[in-house]
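REVIEWER CHECKLIST
Item 1: Sequence provided? yes
Item 2: Single chain? yes
Item 3: Sequence as submitted:
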Amino acid sequence: MSKPMKKVVVGSMVVGVAAVGFFLWTRNAGAKQPDFKTVEVTRGTIIDKALATGQVVPDQEIQVKSQISGIVSKCYVEVGERVEAGQPLFAITPDPTPLELAESERDVEMAQVAYDKAQQDLERSHSLWTGGIVARDQFDSRQKEFEQARIGLEQARDRLALLKEGRIERQGATTVDSVIRASTAGTVLERRVNPGDPVVPLTTFQEGTVMMTLADMSTLEFRGTVDEIDVGKLREGMLARIQIGALPGSTVPGNLIRIAPKAREKEGATVFDVEVAIDASASEVTLRAGYSANADVIVQEKTDVLLIPERVVKLEDGKATVELPGPTPEADPVVREIEVGLSDGLNMEVVAGLDEGEQLVQRPPKKIE
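Item 4: Structure as written out by the authors:
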């Protein structure tokens, strides 16, 4: 083979080897590119909490009702006003039905008959007792019967006077009248009647017309429900943070005061009723009855702890492990066992095995075929 031909062959071989080598290098380099991202071990606060959904309500609402049937002649207060105990709320013009009036008059007649008989029995028993014919116990029994009959007659007369005149007077003073007054201090939440409206009285046989609702707005509660999954870790006295739907960005503190002992069904789910006492003094927001709200009941809270995303932790056989990048880009990730603590569903506390700032392998989610 001539020298020029040898040079051509050698040159071709060198070029071929170089091309093959470049191809293999690029293929291997591409294969060694890490198929993952990394996340950093950080420090922060983690909270385990249970979510309750419900609304803000007064601790106690009082329904205002009338003792007599009639027509509302005057309303003294409006919704939103604050009233004091004894303050007039409504004036009622008595308007009894003929049947109510007849029944009340008959009650007075029957009570009078019972009173007259009890008085006669008492006088006879007194004579027999002073004559030594009957024992003192029998005389005492007749005396009690007379007192009961006297009270019954007085009550029957009062009811009749209330129906006819709209008031009850004793010893020259009016003790009950047709003006309905507040039994306690509070704020008017609702007024259901206006002048000219008829009202039905509250009796042992009927509930009566609800004329107004009062409540002390200084003692508010959150009442809501918690899913059965979370109720097992709740305890009375736990701190709660309440978010009001109408007041975004505002949080009101409170304490869990009641957990229902029995579950109930709500929209196909099993839930438990809970109540949270609101500490309104610790918040500058103005709360109103009926606000929709969510309450985070704090089960456990830890501050200044190491945190990692829960998705990078592998839990198996009671052990928790994570992957750290290898010493070189070409090296496989290194598996390390760690000790974990509190979890909030997104992040997990690291008790031991990692340091702040370390990088962890975050594998891409597996595709579901």
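Item 5: Key structural point noted by reviewer: Residues 37-44+303-362 form a domain with the conserved putative lor/sdh protein from methanococcus maripaludis s2 fold fold (CATH 2.40.420.20).
Item 6: Recommendation: ____
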